[in-house]
Amino acid sequence: MLLLPGPEDLTSLVLRVDFGDEVRWEACQETLSGSGDDRMATFVSDIGFDGVTTQRLVELDTGADLDDRVFYLFVADSTTLGDDEFPLLAVDLDGEPGRTFRVPVAFFADVSANLSIGNMDFAEFADAVDATGAYRGFN
């Protein structure tokens, strides 16, 4: 049975769902890891998640025991790996399950840090996206 892995303490889960380009996945991880002084991400690259949909992620989290729930995660999909900004797909698994927005790597640390400590909620970021559906800071 497929289970969403929990992120390491005070990091956000970055789940790979596109396995078409190993070099781009490595570049994405390197770019995210270099975006701040503190480790912000727990990277998961498990072929069992290849092509998994947002709806399936919601179902997996909803079916987990409360102690094993993830609540939100970031998905590295074909859109992420095909763009030099590496816009991860942020997925809400709790407040509005299935709600999404894109987060270019330059803004990942801000979103990840605030979500991981509960300083802000998912909707605050999702409500602040630009016309492309990406969060690029509060204006």
TrEMBL record:
Domain DUF6924: 11-138
Pfam families, sorted: DUF6924
InterPro entries attached to this UniProt entry: DUF6924 (IPR053832)
Name of this chain's protein: DUF6924 domain-containing protein
Lineage: Bacteria, Bacillati, Actinomycetota, Actinomycetes, Micromonosporales
